Amino acid sequence: MTQSLPLAIVAGAGPGLGNTLLSRFKDRGYQVVGLNRSLPSKTDFDIRVVDLTDEQATNAVIASLIKEYGAPKVVIHNTAQLVIKPLAETTAGDFEACWRSMALSAFVLAKSLMQPMVDNGGGTFIVSGATASLRGSAKFSAFSSAKFALRGLTQSLAREFQPQGVHVVHSILDGIIDTDNSRSLHSMDPDKMMKPEDIAAVYFGLCEQPRSTWTHECDLRPFDGSF
Amino acid sequence: MTQSLPLAIVAGAGPGLGNTLLSRFKDRGYQVVGLNRSLPSKTDFDIRVVDLTDEQATNAVIASLIKEYGAPKVVIHNTAQLVIKPLAETTAGDFEACWRSMALSAFVLAKSLMQPMVDNGGGTFIVSGATASLRGSAKFSAFSSAKFALRGLTQSLAREFQPQGVHVVHSILDGIIDTDNSRSLHSMDPDKMMKPEDIAAVYFGLCEQPRSTWTHECDLRPFDGSF
Amino acid sequence: MTQSLPLAIVAGAGPGLGNTLLSRFKDRGYQVVGLNRSLPSKTDFDIRVVDLTDEQATNAVIASLIKEYGAPKVVIHNTAQLVIKPLAETTAGDFEACWRSMALSAFVLAKSLMQPMVDNGGGTFIVSGATASLRGSAKFSAFSSAKFALRGLTQSLAREFQPQGVHVVHSILDGIIDTDNSRSLHSMDPDKMMKPEDIAAVYFGLCEQPRSTWTHECDLRPFDGSF
Amino acid sequence: MTQSLPLAIVAGAGPGLGNTLLSRFKDRGYQVVGLNRSLPSKTDFDIRVVDLTDEQATNAVIASLIKEYGAPKVVIHNTAQLVIKPLAETTAGDFEACWRSMALSAFVLAKSLMQPMVDNGGGTFIVSGATASLRGSAKFSAFSSAKFALRGLTQSLAREFQPQGVHVVHSILDGIIDTDNSRSLHSMDPDKMMKPEDIAAVYFGLCEQPRSTWTHECDLRPFDGSF
Hints:
The structure is a homotetramer. By secondary structure, chain A is an alpha/beta fold. Chain A has helices at residues 17-27, 55-69, 92-119, 141-161, 180-185, 196-208; strands at residues 7-11, 31-36, 46-49, 74-77, 123-130, 166-173, 217-220. The interface between A and D is medium-sized, with 34 and 34 residues. Chains A, B, C, D: This is SDR family NAD(P)-dependent oxidoreductase.
C-alpha cells in the first residue's frame, strides 16, 4: 500500500460530471478511482466496474482499493437514473430501479466506507441531489421518491458520522448539467446549463472546508434558472 | 356489486392505529376492508392478507374489492417497519425492507387504485408519515430514508392526481402512538402519547375536506411533545 | 362577566374570510368578537376597532373583552396587507407596513392573550399564512418577508405555549380566497378559488383537535391548484 | 473615482466576523469598507457609521461609496441583534428592534445597492442567517421572527436579481462563532465553535462561484454540532 496521494472515489463515473470530477481531483493531487456499472466507452481514468447495489461485490472492490491506496479522503456519490412518466406508465420495476440506483447504492457505498474513513482520520462524503430531492412533481413519482430517500439517508449519515470526523454533504444540483447528452436532449441555451467543471470546483471546495464550518446542504443552479 | 356504502381501505390493518381507523370509518358509514401482510390474531374486520410489494397479488385483491364494492372513496396507507440501528448494524436487507414496507407498498397500492378512484369521481388517499419523514437522524438511516421516499412519492401523487379529483395527504405523526405495544416498549407517560382514536378523527376530517380546501401535508403531535 | 359561551376572537374581521369565520364560530356556539383597523361598512358582528400594532390600545381592548367574556378559547389572526412590486418600487414604508400588519400585530395580540389563555385552561391560536410564507418570490420582497416573520413567530409561540395548553397553528392558505374582491381582481374560474366557508370549517376542526393530536402546520389549497 | 480594486462592503463590521470578513477580502485584493451603527473601539478598516434602517442616511453613504469606488462586487449583510426571552418578557420594542436590525436593514441596503450592482455587471450579495432562520423556538419569538423575515426577503431578492446577474446567498450559521465575546458568554469548548476566518473563507468562495453554479442557500456548522 502506497499512501503518497490521498484517494478520491467517484461513484457514477461515466462521461459528464463523473469524468470531470475525476479530472478535477486528479489535478489537485488526488489518486482518483471511478466506480461504474459498466466501463465507459472512453475514459482516461481507473474505473472499476461494480454494481453498487451488490453488497458483496462492492465490499470486495472497496477492500481492494483500501489495500492499494488506504481509506479514501473523498467519496462522491453521483449515480443517477432518470424516469419521467405518469404513474400509469411507471412500473414497480422503474420505481425500484430508481431507488436501487440512487438510494441503495449510496447506502451500500457508505456502509463499506464510513468506518474505514473514520479510522483513517476522517474525510468527505458528498452526495448529488436534484430539484426532485426537495419537491415531488407529477411524472416524477419514481425519481423524486428515490431522490428523497437519498436525502433522508444522507441526513442520517451526517448526524451519525460528522461527530466522528466524516463531513457528509447533500448537494442539490437544481438544473441541467451541460453534457453532450443534455445538449442533444434539450433545446435549452447551453449558457443556462450547469458546467461540470464548475460543479467539480464547488465539490472540491466542500472537501476543503475546515471542520469548524462544514456545509451539510447547499443548492447549485445556473444564474438564470427560475427556481 | 353493491354500492350502498362507500368503501374505505386501510393498508396496515394490525392492532393499534390500523384497527382504530377501520372502526372509525365503519362507524361513520363506510364499508371497511383492511389489507395486511398477515392475519391479526384478533380483529372484528374484513382483513385481506396480501403482500403490498407484490404487484400481481395486490392488483388481484384490489380488483376483487372493486368488483364487490366499487372503487374506494378512502384509502389509508399506514404500514410501518421500524429499524433503529447504527449504520454498522443496519444491513442492506434492513434498508430494503424498510423501503419495501413503506415506500414500494404505497407505490403499488397507488398504482392499483388511483385510476379507478379517478374514474369513480375521486376520493382521498392518506399516507402516514413520521418525524423521520422530515429529518434524518443518527441510527435512522433505513427508516428515515424510507419515510423520505414515501413523502417524495406522496407529493408526486398529489401533483398528478389532485387535479383529477383524488385528494392526496401526507400526514406526519410526530409522536408515539398509544398502543399496548408502545406502552410495553416505552416508559413514557401515556398522557403524552397520541391516541389512535384522535388520529382517526383527524383522518376522517381530512376525508371530509371540500375540494376548495384540500390539505396536502399536516403534522400531528401531542401537546407536550418537544418538537 | 358572563361565561355562558366560549369566546372566539377574529383579528382581521373585514368582509371575506374574517366575516365568515365569525359566522361559523357563532353558529357553533361561540361568543364572537372581531378586531379590525376600521369598522367594516356592513357587518352583523361585534367589531372592535383597534390598531393591533399599538400595544396599549390592544391591551385595553383585550382586557375589556376578557372582563366581559373571560379569556378566549379561540383566537384567529387573519390580517393581511398585500404588496406586489419589484424591489425598486417597494418603499421602506411598504416593507414596514406589511410587517406591522401581519407580524407585529400577531406578536402584540399573542402577548396580550397567551397568558390569560394559559390561566384559563388553554385554547387555540390560529394564524393564517400564505404561499409566500414558505417561498420568497420576485416582487414579493415585502409580503414574503412579513409572512416568513409571522411563521417564525408562530413556531416560537407553539414551542413555548403548547406545553402550557395553548394549541398554536400556522395554516397556509395556498390559493386565492373566493370573495367579491377576488372575483373583481382575478379572472380566475371561481371553482378554483378557496371558499371562505370551507376554510372556516377547517379552522373550526383545528380548534376541536384533542390535545393528543395537535396540528401545528397544515396547508390548504384548491384541488386544481398547481403547487 | 478609481476602479483599481473591486469594492466589498460588509454591513455589521464590528469585532468578530465582520472584522474578519473585511480582513479576508482585503487580503484577496478587494477595497473593503465596513458599515456599522457605531465606530468599533478598535479597527484597521474604513468603517462608515450609518443606521441601515434610515433610508436617507444609507442612500447617502452608498452613493458616496459608489462615487469613490464604483458599485460593489461584494456585499455582505451580517448585522445581528440577539434577544432570548420568554414571550412575557419580550417587549414590542424588542420584537421591532430585532426586525429593524436584521430584516429592515437588509431591505434598505439591498434597495440602495441592487440596481447599481446590476448596472455594473453583477456581483454577490450574501446574508448571514442562523439556526433560528429555519426553526422558531421557545424564547426566540423576536429573534426567529426577524431571521425568518430576512430569509423570505433574501429568497425574493434571489428570484428577482439572479437573472439580472447578482448572486444572492442566504448562509445559515448554525453554531456559535468563536469570538472573545462568545468565549466569555459560553462555557463551550472553543473547538466546537465556528472560526470567523473559516466562515470568511466560505463566503469568499461563494463570491467566486461562476454563474453556472450559484448556491442560494447553504448551512455551516462545526463538525461536532448536534443539528
